[in-house]
Amino acid sequence: MGKAKLVVAVRGNKYTGIIRTISVFDNRTQQYLPREYICERGIVWFLNMDDMKETLNWNLNGNSSKFQLKWGQTAKGISEGLAFVFD
After folding, report:
1. 57-71 pLDDT, tens digit each
2. Per-residue pLDDT at 21
């Protein structure tokens, strides 16, 4: 698989299931996208992982069959992860 066009850093709450976008990095321009972009695209909050996958791919014109999500460690019910959005 090729390089992801966008890398979305997220934080999930184990107890509520809600996931929040921390940042979006554009691999094509090598820059973080501004918070306004995240808000305009409607990718601030997600109800669960399925909602996040569908919303990110739809709102960022991604290919859902190539979508990847990698979670890090959980501490006090909070996990951070990276979602990779591909063309």
Report:
1. 999 999 999 999 999
2. 97
Q: How far apart are CA 70 and CA 82, in angstroms?
A: 5
The pLDDT of residue 9: 97
The size of the chain, in residues, is 87
Q: What is the 3-state secondary structure (H, E, C) of the chain?
A: CCCCCEEEEEEEECCCCCEEEEEEEECCCCEECCHHHHHHCCCCEECCHHHHHHHHHHHCCCCCCCCEEEEEEEECCEEEEEEEECC
Distance CA 61, CA 31 (A): 18
Rounded distance between C-alpha atoms, residue 22 and residue 45, angstroms:
10
* pTM for the full predicted model: 0.91
> Strand 78-85 and strand 45-46: pairing?
unpaired
Tell me how far CA of residue 65 lies from CA of 16, 34, 42, 69, in angstroms.
Answer: 27, 27, 21, 12
